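Quick illustration, no need to memorize.
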Amino acid sequence: MQDLFQQGLRTQENSKFLNFWKIVQEEASKHNSVFFLDSGEGNEIEITDINAEDLSGWLVPKDRASEFDILFKAFDNKTISEKFDDFYMIASWQKKQDSISVSFA
């Protein structure tokens, strides 16, 4: 079974990024969604045990995540564009005191 917090990734990532990814997926879950990573967008920061960066990707409702995951893993970009373009977002991080939060826009 795939680790819940690694869903939405196509590649293996280091532990500091995975700590950030957990924050991203926790925020996505608040929107009843799963975030699928397309690419990094810069604005990087490294603090203690977290590597954060603004990310682009798809914020997909949980009830469509399995359908999207199949296309995502197959790199079926044509079908993704046709069916899921409206879900494409930027996940931006913000630092507040010693913690990192994420918002989608």
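The longest strand covers residues 88-96.
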